[in-house]
Amino acid sequence: MDALLLARIQFAFTISFHIVFPALTIGLASYLAVLEALWMRTRDREYLDLFNFWKKVFAVAFGMGVVSGLVMAYQFGTNWSEFSKFAGGVTGPLLAYEVLTAFFLEAGFLGVMLFGMRKVGPGLHFFATLMVALGTLVSATWILASNSWMQTPQGHAIVDGRVVPLDWFAIVFNPSFPYRLVHMVLAAFLATALFVVASAAWHLLRGNDNGPIRKMMAMGLGMLVLVAPLQAFVGDLHGLNTAKHQPAKLAAIEGHWENHPGQGVPLLLFGIPDMEAERTRYPVAVPNLGSLLITHTWSGQFPGLKEFPKEDRPNSLIVFWSFRVMVGLGMLTILLAAAGVWLLRGARVYASRAYLRFALAMGPAGLVAILAGWITTEVGRQPWVIYGIMRTADGVSAHSAAQVGFTLALFVVVYALVFGTGTVYLLRIVGKGPEIGESEIPDGGAGKKRQPMRPMSAAPERFDELEAEAPSPSGGRDER
Hints:
By secondary structure, the chain is mainly α. The chain has 2 domains: 1-174 and 400-480, no CATH class; 207-395, no CATH class. It has 15 helices and 6 strands. The chain has helices at 3-42, 45-78, 81-115, 122-151, 168-172, 177-205, 211-245, 247-254, 289-295, 316-344, 353-361, 365-381, 392-395, 401-432, 463-468; strands spanning 156-159, 162-165, 267-274, 279-286, 384-386, 390-391. The strands form 3 sheets. A two-stranded antiparallel ribbon has the order 1-2. Strands 3-4 form a two-stranded antiparallel sheet. A two-stranded antiparallel sheet has the order 5-6. Strand 3 and strand 4 form a beta hairpin. The longest helix is centred in the first third of the chain and has 40 residues, at 3-42. The relative contact order is 0.14.
């Protein structure tokens, strides 16, 4: 493997670790805002218990997301210096805007949200929670603006071999940006809702049936019912946008090689695209359905991969299957939501072990779907790092394969230790569950109850204590 492929693998590895945590923090921040609003309105103690419980999970995910995100910023200079030199006039300011708006907003109010419930009044604390939630959405906006510009660039000129911004409104609101932003935010909400539902299912399967756990299940299912069908609709709009602006990517996603005049394009449910033979082997197809989904007509045509030079074709085998993983998990999510709403009648959802096992198995599905979606987006853009303007091979730094391979191996080891431990700790917090009726009623005011001011301190449980308190299969506590 050469330095280019190793640099791509390294960036893919680090961003795959990173995206899991921002996706959870985007969804959890909004969930925390809803829980606190319900607590303030109803004074139902169970909402406060849930707020304090999910606040711990948010703090751990936020901490790991910040640390993993810093690594990617350095890679722009170390592994992709030619790209940064060429496009830094656009991507640099966009990332700086994210820091100046979203990160400063989150950092300014995060301490109040995590540690200030007994130090400030309820109104100010709720405002801080809203600002943290807003900060996560603003952060996603700038990141998606930068990445979307790389997918569908506009509003710039190339002067002396470098990109020069001409129209920042056109750069930010490039053709794919609105669809990709909404698609990603909804995906984060879905991933969080699946995580919440799976957490409730875990406790219900172990006999931990109480008010907060039931509220977790009901609220998570409510989010799935609202967002899952909406995500399918937004995904369709995003597909139409891709057909217009990135036709080679769409052809690779569909495993579509050539048009046949007068015939509609079938939808390939399964198959093995062969880049060398220029065909998809062992196809399982539905006639005309590809035309109907992509062009919204019965016999509409869209370009096949053979219409593009071989050196401009993305790897169809990868994006064909990553896209189907994403869509398949989305369909299972809709099924989970529909079955859950049906079982909510008569509260059967809390006792159906078959459904609870299904919900538990679907816990990581939202995050896996996000990873599959990003693989589809990024591999489908190849061989361009900036679509139609700069090839990926021209953006890599002048490193040897040995240098990049060594740092990649180091990343794998360090990430496995650091984020593996953090993930296990996070899951053990979830496995412990909310502390029923033990949350202190906030009274606010100056000088109330001094607390440490580090984000991870919001989850005070020790790692070994969580291991000792893990629920046993019989529903009790394992006191080893």
